[in-house]
Structure prediction request, 457 residues.
Amino acid sequence: MSNQSNYPTSLFSSNLTFKNENQSGGALSIAGCSAEKLVKEFGSPLFVLDQEDFYLRARAWRAALDNSFGSGQLYYAAKSFICVEVAKWLKELKLGLDVCSGGELAVALAADFPAQDIEFHGNNKSEVEIRKAVKAGVGTIVIDSFDELNRVATIAKELGEVQKVYLRLTPGVDAHTHEFISTAHEDVKFGFSIASGAASEAIEKCMSQSSLKLSGIHCHIGSQIFEVAGFKAAAERLVAVLASFRDKYSMELQELNIGGGYGIAYTKDESAISPDLVIPAIAAVIKDECAKAKLALPRISIEPGRAIVGPTTTTIYVVGTTKSVKLENGAERRYVSVDGGMSENIRPALYGAVYSAFLANRSSTAKLISSRVVGKHCESGDILISEIDLPADIAAGDLLAIPATGAYGRSMASNYNHIARPSVVAVINGTAREILRRENEQDLLNLDVNQPPRQLS
Ligand SMILES: *Cc1c(COP(=O)(O)O)cnc(C)c1O
Prediction:
């Protein structure tokens, strides 16, 4: 078994270094590329992705799966961050890909990603998306509702295909962050509830459709999870479903997908959950429960997104305006504005996500003062870091690095205020290249049309 201590659990990517480092930061380099040179070449804000770190994490999760279960599949969650180049890396790594829209599927297909290794998620896939997926030969469609079950069955029949499917179940385990909550019924838009009986009804319906091949069940219990208890509880409940399936149909479902959600560090106080810790723990429960129920061990798959790409990427900003304000309690707060904000990192504004920041062009010995890192958008809530101690001498022109921005940063980016979305640069062995270019003003104007009005037929 691989060594647990080898897995990088800090908020920094593996090949990130600060020269003349102190607690404020230092002259930042990632994979031998200096932040200053990167910004000079590619502009800012800039997502810098440590490519070797991506491979290292992807391989570590894959290896943990293989070590614990002998085989299995890792479906990388495309929604965390995908582009054609990253899809090619995943293909090279022989991993699977979890997509949840026609757009994400289009990226995978543009990278010639093997369709049979794609899994298609989503609670409201359109007929167009389903047809496209079935035609492309997508390996697995994860069915999320009764409506969709009928839609997929009808479309597959029409196209003369038997589509392999999973059913997404809600096991009554909700694990967002450090604890998990066990609930009897699930007030969420995703999946079929096990407790209410919807799951077994969906299984029956699936089994009665000749154009569907039910090969397994799926659950995803949340995101940014640090405790294995939630995964264990979910695994137990899913194995119980596998057992009742066997009792009813005298055959066994071959596959069990336990989703993603593995937590990473965003601050120096946090530590990512290691694949060598969580996967064997889940494996022990699944093996135990399967043995008790006299079931063969199903093929296990997982869907990490954040855990693979999150820590690989650091955003580099150029500092602009700073100002100090007096708070009601007499204390002072300094606002440090950077040249991006909620358009390339919506997570703090959307759900209070916490990040850290470091000086990236130099270190400072100035006193650390209470600061708030804000963007340039016309919105008071455009805050990247609500409260952080930063050196008092930070000024316009300094570079500020925010680590662990690889997941749900660029992928959730918007053009609010007509700000162009930043580029993503992959760095490896002292070299750098754009894998997603920065938008320009022409890109922003390209959608504006000048059409005469016309009657609709
Ligand atoms: C979002 C999501 C994932 C990935 O979650 P991470 O927190 O990025 O690991 C995996 N599976 C499903 C079904 C999801 O919705």
